[in-house]
Specification:
The chain is α+β, with helices and mostly antiparallel strands and about 500 residues long. The protein has five domains: about 45 residues; about 50 residues, no CATH class; about 170 residues, Nucleotidyltransferase, domain 5 (2-Layer Sandwich), CATH 3.30.420.10; about 60 residues, no CATH class; about 90 residues, no CATH class. The chain has 18 helices and 19 strands. Strands 5-4-1-7-10 form a five-stranded mixed beta sheet, sandwiched between helices. Strands 13-16-17-18 form a four-stranded antiparallel beta sheet, with no helix packed on it. Helix 13 packs across helix 15. The longest helix is centred in the middle third of the chain and has 21 residues. The radius of gyration is 37 Å and the shape is elongated. The termini are far apart. The mean pLDDT is about 90.
């Protein structure tokens, strides 16, 4: 009778407890004679079985293996499926699709015996308080929505490899502004910094990629100097050198996904609310890392500097189109600023526009290049005077604030033609800018639902505020003599 490795291990455990051979054999589920055999050999069945040196069936690739082996020797990267398809083309009908697995085993065995040397990855020993690693990872896959709208975002993830302490901030892009905010948030939360800070080699937030030399950019070097850390980077194409934070990225997103499931939904009222949720999840995970974190903090330098501003400033001139150009994207501003120079604070998620030190505008930042965001309120006063410019306006699509406005324009065009539709639609936009866009949108929705062509006078009547009704109360007559009598009684 043969036994499995697990049965023999159970037998040895029972014998080590001074259990008799009969009882031990029964508990391990084997015959007494078999138990005596393995007690004497003190070896597992898998080690006693001699390796099989024969095939259980004829090798279907025996006639062609020499040719296949020569092809692998010339191009070791060839895959078994490619070789199999080549064979089927050379010998139609000789090989069935079910034999692919057999060839894959042949190729795998050949690679193990004769294939090229593979890259070895070396496990690194981390020292407490020595290094932090930072990386950006996409969080869009979590399915988070803000006010019901899909939220495309990234997480700036900072990890201390020795203790696995981590910190994460929500950002919109892999930018220097996002990195500055994420790194400072992490280390100001700790109150201390390690000696070194490591990032990968591909991020434009830390490297100057335009020159091709991939050196650190000046802004990142200033941040590292301010915080007192030595900047390090990985080799080009060697993300595994930043492996701790890379692995932590996946673990963080799995943890966030689980907490979103427990929460019951992934919708948040604001980005700030979502970031608070991320902070709570990370803080819970850090509780179990307190002991090793204490070892790190004992060797880390106390942070004694103030926090750097988390924006970049640019001075730009407002064009005659009532737009400014920032980071290769166009934004509209109030037309009264045309020809003036404004100062723009560029954050990761927004722009703040100042004129004469006064905040004039806050607008969501565009990421990427050659994009535009035009607010009809900034230009409608000029456009209603020049309605002919609307037909071929470069940023025309930005002047439809919602699908309802687009449908209203289409209804006007179908009823009156393009020229009159342009004039009528611009008057509707002017009304929205003068009153409340939401009220105008509701009025348009009602008219479209009734299959009525919108016109500005009807919409104006619908959105015009109704006068408040007040009660007609008679003024009371005050008897001042009562006060005289009261004072006289007190005297």
């Amino acid at each position: 009778m043969t036994a499995t490795d697990a049965q023999v291990k159970k037998l040895m455990d029972e014998l080590n407890k001074c259990t008799g051979i009969g009882v031990a054999a029964a508990r391990a589920g084997m015959d007494r004679k078999t138990a005596r055999k393995y007690r004497g050999s003190k070896a597992l069945p898998s080690t006693l079985k001699p390796p099989r040196a024969w095939l259980t069936r004829e090798d279907p690739f025996a006639d062609d293996w020499t040719s296949l082996e020569a092809m692998l020797a010339d191009a070791p990267e060839l895959e078994a499926k490619t070789l199999f398809e080549w064979l089927q083309g050379q010998k139609p009908g000789a090989y069935s699709d079910g034999q692919l697995r057999t060839l894959q085993r042949h190729v795998r065995r050949w690679r193990g015996q004769h294939g090229p040397e593979k890259q070895v990855f070396f496990s690194q020993e981390h020292r407490p308080g020595e290094r932090a690693q930072t990386d950006f990872t996409w969080g869009t896959e979590l399915g988070v929505t803000i006010g019901g709208e899909p939220f495309a975002h990234m997480l700036c993830h900072v990890v201390l490899p020795y203790s696995n302490w981590e910190h994460a901030t929500v950002c919109r892009s892999e930018s220097m502004a996002a990195l500055r905010r994420g790194v400072q948030a992490a280390f100001f939360a700790l109150g201390q910094v390690p000696k070194e800070h490591q990032t990968d080699n591909s991020t434009a937030a830390t490297h100057d990629l335009s020159t091709g030399k991939r050196g650190f950019n000046a802004e990142y070097l200033r941040l590292m100097e301010h915080l007192g850390m030595t900047p390090l980077t990985t080799a080009v194409g060697a993300k595994e050198q930043n492996g701790d934070v890379e692995a932590a990225n996946n673990a963080l997103k799995r943890r966030l996904k689980q907490h979103l499931l427990v929460r019951g939904n992934a919708d948040f009222e604001s980005v700030a609310a979502y970031e608070a949720f991320v902070g709570e999840v990370v803080e819970r995970a850090n509780v179990g890392r307190a002991k090793r974190l204490a070892d790190e903090l004992a060797l880390m330098r106390v942070l004694r500097v103030t926090r750097l501003v988390e924006y970049e400033e640019q001075d730009v001139e407002v064009t005659s189109w009532s737009t400014i150009r920032v980071k290769k994207n166009a934004y509209s501003v109030p037309s009264r600023l045309i020809g003036e120079r404004v100062r723009v604070r560029v954050y990761d998620d927004r722009l703040e526009v100042y004129y004469s030190s006064r905040l004039e505008l806050v607008v969501e930042r565009l990421h990427g290049e050659q994009k535009h965001r035009v607010d009809y309120r900034h230009i409608i006063w000029s456009l209603v005077k020049k309605p002919g410019a609307f037909a071929r306006y470069r940023y025309r699509e930005d002047l439809f604030p919602s699908l309802v406005f687009r449908r209203a324009y289409d209804a006007l065009r179908d009823a009156h033609g393009e020229r009159q539709a342009d004039i009528g639609y611009l008057r509707l936009l002017h009304l929205a800018a003068s009153t409340m866009e939401a009220d105008v949108e509701l009025a348009l929705t009602l008219m479209l639902a009734e299959r009525r062509v919108p016109d500005v006078e009807t919409v104006k009547a619908l959105v015009q505020p109704r006068p408040l009704l007040t009660a007609d109360l008679a003024a009371p007559v005050v008897d001042l003599g009562a006060y005289d009598r009261l004072l006289g009684a007190e005297a």
